[in-house]
């Protein structure tokens, strides 16, 4: 068994230097593309992504952010539907796609046709990871199931993201992030108790499943270093949601307690809430620990509250949560937000303003850490977006380019598996690429 060779130094154009994968077979492993070098801790890994919309592609984004060479296969006629998503589309460009498609090379192939499937197999044969998020059985119908692919590439890690997982009575059902959020328990506890179950303002079910899928992929690669063999990573959206639901299950099983919607607070965790300010904004204050509450009591000019038996302990504060929140709000509403923040900083009380993009872009901490990065876009000019997280001290990832135009890298990538210009023209004429 061999491990991937160190990446070649970047050159001015696409590199097709060969490296060995962990199963010992050679694979093309470009360290540069037309957009620039890959970089990052996953440099040298080849990922083929055949998913669409969010759960699979977000997994691909995370791997690409960390330096993997992500080859995204899309349908030639329309591409990933995410290219059309988003409330704002300046110059007919999806801002959502500019993020989820970043650091990827777009290749168009018709996977419903045998020749398109053959070309996909040629790319997957040289890949470390395959990411897909179709309904279970789809890849098998296309001749791209794991059993067939591992004959070509025994070291392949196949990441499969779906609504309900690859087996079980619900596996064949269509599953979206919203369904997983409902089934995994999140929707029931989100919102105000006076309203029906609510949703988060983002596609949290899809992104959680993608994050678990990414963890699974990296774990499978680590195991491959030992065994030389790939495996399937099965990430179900509803299970990913359940995975972050804390003690929801044993609370019911052992005590019969059912968590309910509680709005801006967690029951019995006090004080920890958003509080009004004089200028109409809000400040989040989290001072539920005994020592921290003492500092908050001093900050609001009532240090005696820290020793008052009604508020002196975690349990007592929880029992009087509404009463205590009202007491704190009576003080905060007399303060401007900047004045209040200075006071909380002085007394080392954990707090945070409620940020929107306008506050994020102006905030000195965001700026100092480059939490938001600026990426050149061929149509929109400079686009600001979230940077790569987490950060690594030596080999952190980068945003090398935004989501590319459909098929922008088809010729480049297919050339790596022997498709010349003449054949590519024929494929395009027949709607296969």
Automatic annotation (TrEMBL):
Single GO molecular function: CoA-transferase activity
Region feature Disordered, mapped onto this chain: 1-42
SUPFAM superfamilies assigned to the protein according to its UniProt record, in alphabetical order: CoA-transferase family III (CaiB/BaiF) (SSF89796)
Claim: Transferase is one of the keywords in the record: yes
Origin: domain of life: Bacteria
Record key words, sorted: Transferase
Name of the protein in question: CoA transferase
